[in-house]
Amino acid sequence: MLKQGLQQKLQQKLSPLQIQTIKLLELPTLELEQRIKKELEENPVLDEANENDERDESEPGNLSLSEYSAEDQIPSYRLYSNNQGKDVKQEYNIFSVKESFHQSLISQLGYSSLNEREKQIAGYIIGSLDDDGYLRRDLDSLTDDIAFRQGVETNEYEVEAILKKIQEFEPAGIGARDLQECLLLQIRNVKPSPAQKNAEEILENYFSEFTKKHYTKIISRLSITEDELKDAIEEIVHLNPRPGGQIDDSYSDQAQQVIPDFLLEFKDGELIMTLPRFTVPELRVNKRYADLLVSSANASSREGKEAATFVKQKLDSAKWFIEAIRQRHNTLENTMNAIIDFQRQYFIDGDETKLRPMVLKNIAEKTNLDISTISRVVNCKYIQTHFGIYPLKYFFSEGLMTDSGEEVSTREIKNILGESINVEDKKKPLTDEELVTVLNEKGYKVARRTVAKYREQLNIPIARLRKEL
Fold first, then answer.
1. What's the rounded Cα separation, in Å, for the pair 121 and 49?
2. Which residues have a Cβ under 8 Å from the Cβ of 57 and sit 6 or more positions away?
3. DSSP 301-345
4. What is the DSSP letter of 451?
């Protein structure tokens, strides 16, 4: 039986300005500086303003060309980006952090054999990996996001094929969708040996038996000795269940200089937040090229029209870039002020117990911005406070209620959970049910599934696997 049907798909097309703004939002200060330098080199219409420049000199005159539509126009006051703070250069610390696995993967992507379209998809997949290096999202929703956010039409099969390429990157195990796949990716990179071969087969075909420590079954089904099983297990326990944390946790020479994107001071009982904007050069539209655009538009020769088209494109690009810089600054400032307002008691003295439960949605509601926008602002950004330098992600966590009705951060609960497991009797480790009782006695009302989730996030195995002889 032949069936016909209509399917309507709604797609939102982002404007060049929106695309530019989204890309700039994600950049930390140092990368923004590099991006601006690159734009200045590539666009002759864009200028770096001097302190002695007059504002009206930086704005082009009448640009009423037939090629321009009213919708494309940006008010002239937006053709000048004001990044300069009121004061002389503020003092801030430049510090080093180890390269994140996301940055490492993007670097490796640049050397891959993927074409530009595939690299665009791969870059989005890399950005979707969690802090442990896993891809926790299903390919179907990822495919839809790539179409909407990147404007690239793809399908699950292509996304999975590109994911397989990413899984070949270092460190081994990156891009796995679960622990079994993560360990398999790593064991296949180990030098071949009888122990390696047995370990791979155990992980591939007897993973459930292995996690439950049903060793007798494994010995029987693989027809191996107890010593051969021990050798195989020795291979497995040396694998890394959190490949994403490998670069961050290792003291490698991979390091980058980081300039805090926000500066916070506590003066006279007031919290004062500023952005080190002086590091970003002032930008303006070059009036000479704007005049050239007007004069070229009147030329009837082919060369004149080509020149007009070229300068118009460059002028549009300059306007979009300047406006995107302005919007980035405003968005960062509004978002950080909302975070400080939400966590005001914490920012006064840095006492972690005063850190309120906070998720992206809380800040999105305070700023009237999308959650995806807040996520971009928070990603890879740092704030220098009077009690230390922190990534913005540090201030976000979920919350639960204590038996006294007080809301506490999940970070605090995880700390208590970890401490309880550290002091347990390893010959008789605490089950999740028993951990619920321990937390309840300390005033934290949590369910068993919540304990299991936090334990897994802390990379702590179940009680049976923590048991020691």
1. 37
2. 287
3. SHHHHHHHHHHHHHHHHHHHHHHHHHHHHHHHHHHHHHHHHHTHH
4. H
Q: What is the DSSP letter of 76?
A: G
CB atoms within 10 A of CB 360: 17
**Among candidate residues 129, 132, 167, the one with its CA nearest the CA of residue 242:** 132
Q: How far is 226 from 126, CA to CA, in rounded Å?
A: 40
**Which DSSP symbol is given to 397?**
B
Q: Where are the domains of the chain?
A: 28-53+74-94+259-396, 99-173, 179-242, 399-466
d(CA 354, CA 344): 9
> Is residue 215 within 8 Å of 162, Cβ to Cβ?
no
Contact 222, 202 (CB under 8 A): yes
Does the structure show a pLDDT above 60 at 65?
Answer: no
Measured distance CA(311)–CA(208) in Å, rounded: 64
Cα separation, 361 vs 375, whole angstroms: 10
Q: pLDDT over 70 for what percent of the chain?
A: 75
Interatomic CA distance for residues 455 and 451, integer angstroms: 6
What would the pLDDT profile of 390-431 be if each residue is shown by its tens digit?
888 888 876 665 555 555 667 778 888 888 898 888 888 889
Cα–Cα dist 97/219, whole Å: 46
The alpha-helical segments, DSSP class H, found in 128-239 are: 139-145, 156-166, 179-187, 194-205, 207-211, 215-222, 226-237
CA-nearest of 177, 176, 199, 178 to 188 is 199
Cα 333 from Cα 232, distance rounded (Å):
54
Highest CATH level, class, for 399-466: mainly alpha
Q: Is residue 410 within 8 Å of 374, Cβ to Cβ?
A: no
CB 296, CB 61: distance < 8 Å: no
Q: In angstroms, rounded to a whole number, what is the distance separating the alpha carbons of residues 100 and 395?
A: 19
Q: Is 69 helix (H, G, I), strand (E, B) or coil?
A: coil
Residues 31-49: pLDDT tens digits?
Answer: 888 888 888 888 887 877 6
The whole-model pTM stands at 0.51
Residue 19 and residue 317: Cα distance in Å, rounded? 12
* Residue 163 pLDDT grade (very low, low, confident, very high; cuts 50, 70, 90): very high
Pick left, alpha or beta for residue 263 (phi over 0 → left; psi -120 to 50 → alpha; otherwise beta). Answer: beta
Q: Tell me if 241 sits within 8 A of 459, measured CB to CB.
A: yes
